[in-house]
Specification:
globular; 11 helices; single chain; eight-stranded parallel beta barrel; alpha/beta; two-stranded antiparallel sheet
Length: 325
């Protein structure tokens, strides 16, 4: 075992004992990359049904995306359907009891950190401490321009915003932060978060995003890294945290291939993993063997009923097999 192998992430990492699983909510974002046709006519009542199913099927979290406005040039691919994450998660918090509420990801650099803290602290308070704040740098230039934020400096903005949010979401009713971009003290905010420390997960797979996650986050949300790249990325995160002397809990995530429990009988796409619970579990346990702690799953479906059936079958039949690696 050489230092070079450790640095390059070439060695196996300790397998996870049991993979947690969560999902990005359908309906609330409708990019052509992943939206099913039935979602176009779905609405709030369907979201509530999905949230309740996740809550009773063992899902660790439900996630929502964040875009303020989509420029016309991107609308054909991205659509303009992007629900507000705070409003959506607060709505779902009222009809669930245990599932956690994740922003995947909030583009927090678009807003002053005190505004973000007020919104998400209230969400955590109302939900009884179920918030996971996922943050990312963003990629739509027009959003930054119309809101008066420097798009080219969004990485530096995010770095300081994370520091400011750590202060603003802490225990102090009157948080204090003095930085290059934000400076505040003597301003109180209540309610405070229910959690002593709100988990902050950093999204993105660029070298800067991975470094930011390792050094500033409590977890990492990759941006769809293929399996053959994940091990190297995880190794890099572990090395950076070790070199920085960071030893606290850290959650490593992965976005899986699309899934279908059982034999679909329709074209679910060549990348979709389908079959018996044992087949799906064997494939997904490979993530745990790499050192992944939580997987974000997505199910192919032709209707709300098929989706909730898939979620229920996954929780009942696949999840108990997600042990070891």
């Amino acid at each position: 075992m050489t230092n070079r192998q450790i640095r390059e992430g070439a060695l196996p990492v300790a397998p996870t004992a049991h993979l947690r699983y969560g999902m990005q909510l359908p309906i609330q974002s409708q990019s052509t990359l992943y939206t099913e046709p039935w979602e176009a006519s779905a609405g709030p009542a369907d979201l509530l049904t999905i949230a309740r199913t996740a809550d009773t099927s063992g899902f660790a979290y439900l996630a929502t995306c964040d875009h303020v406005a989509i420029p016309r040039r991107l609308a054909p691919a991205m659509s303009t359907v992007w629900y507000d994450p705070v409003a959506t998660l607060a709505h779902l918090a009222a009809v669930t009891e245990r599932v956690r509420l994740l922003s995947h990801v909030a583009v927090v650099g678009l807003r002053h950190p005190l505004l973000t803290a007020k919104q998400y602290a209230t969400l955590d308070h109302l939900s009884g401490g179920r918030l996971i704040l996922g943050v990312g740098a963003g990629h739509v230039q027009e959003e930054f321009e119309v809101l008066g934020v420097d798009f080219d400096r969004r990485g530096a903005v995010l770095d300081e915003t994370i520091d400011a949010l750590r202060a603003a979401l802490g225990a102090d009713e009157f948080p204090e932060h003095h930085g290059k971009l934000f400076d505040f003290e003597g301003l109180g905010q209540r309610p405070r978060p229910a959690q002593e420390r709100v988990p902050l997960w950093v999204g993105g797979s660029s070298p800067a995003a991975v470094r930011r996650a390792a050094l500033k986050g409590d977890g990492w949300l990759p941006q769809g890294d293929p399996r053959d790249r994940l091990r190297e990325q995880i190794g890099r995160i572990r090395r950076m945290r070790e070199e920085a002397g960071l030893q606290g809990p850290f959650s490593i995530g992965a976005i899986t291939e699309p899934l279908y429990v059982g034999e679909p009988g329709w074209d679910v796409g060549r990348r979709t993993i389908s079959g018996t619970p044992e087949v799906l579990a064997e494939s997904l346990r490979a993530y745990g063997a790499m050192g992944v702690h939580q997987i974000q799953v997505r199910f192919r479906s032709r209707s709300l009923a098929e989706l909730t059936d898939q979620m229920g079958e996954f929780g009942a039949d696949v999840a108990p097999l997600l042990v070891g690696g």
